[in-house]
Design brief:
The protein is of the alpha+beta class. Helices cover about 40% and strands about 15% of the residues. The protein is built from 14 helices and twelve strands. The strands form three sheets. Strands 1, 2, 3, 4, 5, 6, 7 and 8 form an eight-stranded mixed beta sheet that branches. The chain has a two-stranded parallel ribbon with strand order 9-10. A hairpin with a 2-residue loop joins strand 2 and strand 3. The chain is elongated, with a radius of gyration of 28 Å. The termini are far apart.
């Protein structure tokens, strides 16, 4: 992309601005719904300069974008910086409120699709999709200016007014669906704990063949006992704060979950086909995500003292006495709310407290506060 003064020679077309200054983008022209649009590449260093964020002081009905969620920016920026040789960002989509002119490179170009897009420098650029990417790019550039010469794809539409811009935002986000967390874990090769979860799902006798690796919810008739996302979160809680090499983390996690398996006879009954996975999930809560997460947190408190199997294995023996049946009234309000298993943060904490009580382990001040509030509610 170039920013330059227009040549003094007269043009057939009217100048884009009264001063003769303009943006010039190499671009490809396309048609959607009878309207022209243009695809180009823009250096990252110019993204914060050209694309201004919508005025957040305006009321929602006068804006064409949602308010920027600044809490998302550190993670997005860190993603770029930590993966500067391997990050991927999809295109920004923007409306241009100003004069645009497209000049084809050659008359031989069939359909006149490739050329140069000239936009008046006083035009206003409104991001319809990608405002958080734009803000994260600006944040990342402050820490690594070398990223400035890299590029991101930009799709330009002509601004047809506020109503059209608001409709574009609605349409671009209407069918956006986040992928299931399980398939995200399956495909994430940067996250060390995702790698551990995938290895457990394929190698451990407890999980091999019994983990749904694509969906994050199990159907009533599924033959699987666990979802990959539930195994991931449980293992993540187990290994949190432990400084272990990948192989060590995998070995430790496998030893832990196989020890848990010894305390939960229904798991092995499913593998031995004496109980169906559907029946187990219906009648017990220990294969649900909340149970794996709670067991991971309990294990983490033991592993922080020592990762040696001889240290923590025997301390888990009392789990054999826990009644995991959904009919157990102790779970109501802890793991079950209104007859349904709930995995809210509070329910996870209350389930952890219940297990720690059975294991003879104390509670942290925060966990005790949650427990006290729950007990007061029961009374």
């Amino acid at each position: 992309m170039e920013i330059e003064a227009a040549p003094p020679a007269p043009r057939v077309a009217a100048p884009c601005t009264s001063t003769g200054f303009e943006y010039r983008f190499p671009a490809i022209r396309g048609i959607q719904a009878g309207r022209e649009y243009y695809v180009t590449m823009c250096p990252l260093r110019l993204i914060p300069i050209i694309f201004r964020l919508d005025d957040e002081d305006l009321s929602p009905e006068l804006r064409a974008q949602r308010v920027l969620n600044k809490g998302r920016l550190p993670a997005l920026s860190k993603y770029i910086l930590d993966n500067s040789d391997d990050y991927v960002f999809s295109a920004l989509t923007a409306s241009v409120d100003g004069n645009m002119q497209f000049d084809t490179f050659s008359a031989d170009d069939i359909g006149f699709r490739t050329g140069q897009l000239r936009i008046a420098m006083d035009a206003r650029f409104l991001i319809n999709d990608g405002q958080h990417r734009r803000a994260a790019i600006e944040l990342a550039l402050r820490q690594n200016s070398d990223l400035g010469e890299e590029t991101i794809a930009v799709v330009f539409f002509h601004d047809a007014g506020l109503a059209r811009s608001q409709q574009m935002f609605a349409d671009l986000n209407r069918h956006a669906v986040r992928p299931a967390r399980s398939i995200g874990v399956l495909y994430d090769h940067r996250d060390a704990e995702a790698q551990v979860a995938r290895t457990l799902a394929s190698r451990s006798v407890v999980f091999n063949g019994y983990v749904e690796i694509e969906k994050s919810n199990l159907s009533a008739r599924s033959r699987k006992m666990f979802t990959l996302s539930a195994l991931y979160y449980g293992t993540q809680a187990l290994l949190q704060g432990l400084e272990l090499k990948p192989d060590e983390a995998t070995e430790l996690a496998q030893a832990y979950w196989e020890t848990i398996d010894e305390a939960l006879p229904e798991w092995s009954m499913v593998r031995e086909r004496r109980l169906s996975a559907a029946e187990m999930r219906r009648d017990f809560i220990h294969s649900h995500g909340i149970a794996l997460h709670a067991l991971g947190r309990v294990g983490n408190s033991l592993l922080r003292d020592s990762t040696a199997v001889s240290h923590w294995k025997n301390k888990l023996a009392p789990l054999k006495k826990v009644n995991w049946s959904r009919a157990n009234s102790d779970w109501e309000g802890r793991a079950i709310v209104g007859g349904r298993v709930s995995k809210s943060h509070q329910q996870v904490t209350l389930t952890v407290n219940y297990l720690r009580h059975h294991l003879g382990l104390g509670l942290s001040p925060e966990d005790q506060r949650v427990e006290d509030a729950y007990l007061r509610g029961e009374k």
